[in-house]
Specification:
With about 110 residues, this protein is an alpha+beta fold. It has six helices and four strands. A four-stranded mixed sheet has the order 1-2-3-4, sandwiched between helices.
């Protein structure tokens, strides 16, 4: 099962949405405050879009498919949060115009030391 999830994560890396690509451009190579982020990272059998192991922080960029699977996303998020992972969830549409809210949310988590 674990190998299957890793393979799925690799496939997701190849088919990122434009919003995910923009977020990855911001986070990759320790560009954001020197923090290490992974993309399409497996946590407890679930794949999150971005993950910072130093702060146990998952970032989810929600597109249209997430509107159709809201119940699943809530269950998934609660299962991951049970592993002491903090979640930041943003919509694709919100990122198209402005990355500042996401940047602010990440800064809040980092500065609070969670």
């Amino acid at each position: 099962m674990k190998e299957l999830k890793k393979k799925f994560a690799r496939q997701l890396r190849k088919t990122q949405t434009p919003a995910e690509k923009a977020v990855w451009k911001l986070l990759r190579d320790r560009r954001f405050f020197g923090l290490k982020f992974r993309r399409q990272h497996v946590i407890g059998g679930f794949v999150v879009d971005f993950f910072c192991p130093e702060y146990n922080l998952a970032i989810e960029v929600d597109g249209g498919v997430h509107k159709k699977q809201k119940d699943y996303d809530e269950l998934r998020q609660s299962e991951i949060e049970a592993k002491n992972v903090m979640f930041i969830r943003v919509n694709n549409e919100d990122l198209e115009d402005n990355m500042c809210p996401l940047i602010r949310k990440i800064k809040e988590v980092v500065s609070s030391g969670n």
